[in-house]
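hi! just following up on the protien thing from before. the input was this:
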Amino acid sequence: MRSRTGRVLMAAAAVSAALVMSGCSSQEDAPKVAGGDGSGKRKQQDDNEVRRAWVTCMHGQGRNEVQQDKDGNITIPASGTGDVDADFAAYEKAAKVCDEKVPGIHQAKSKLNQKFADEARAWVACARKNGYAELPDPDARTGILNIPRLKFDGAKWDAVQPACSKLPAPSYSIGE
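and the predicted 3d structure came back as:
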């Protein structure tokens, strides 16, 4: 399946959101998911609670497409219609609000980024082994696979899908 440039922004947002995972409420106070109990001692944050709080916050910001799946991952469906730039800007604005309101989201995001990068590297290794040798490395920080349009080979892309289908497919873009 091929992605369009408009979908690239939404895919990047999806990865970012999945990494950002956490929520906020409409109340002034941040959710009590990160840190202390008032005693001055800090306790370990539950990443799943942080992600849930961030998703709740995003819903409060009107971003109801942001969801948390059964495994705790944050997902945002890709979209290729409408004003992609305006939608991405609105998403980023909401994410900034929720990032500030939800303590610990940056740690959860960092862990998830590493997970996506590891999964993307495994998928690319599979694709290379199965005939798409010139596929570029995914972004080491986000795991997003950026394929230059002139280097994209649709036949090879389609051919590796069955062999690599047991691995999580990376978010990808086909650039200019």
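The beta strands are 35-36, 42-43, 67-68, 74-75, 145-148, 172-175.
The mean pLDDT is 76.
cheers
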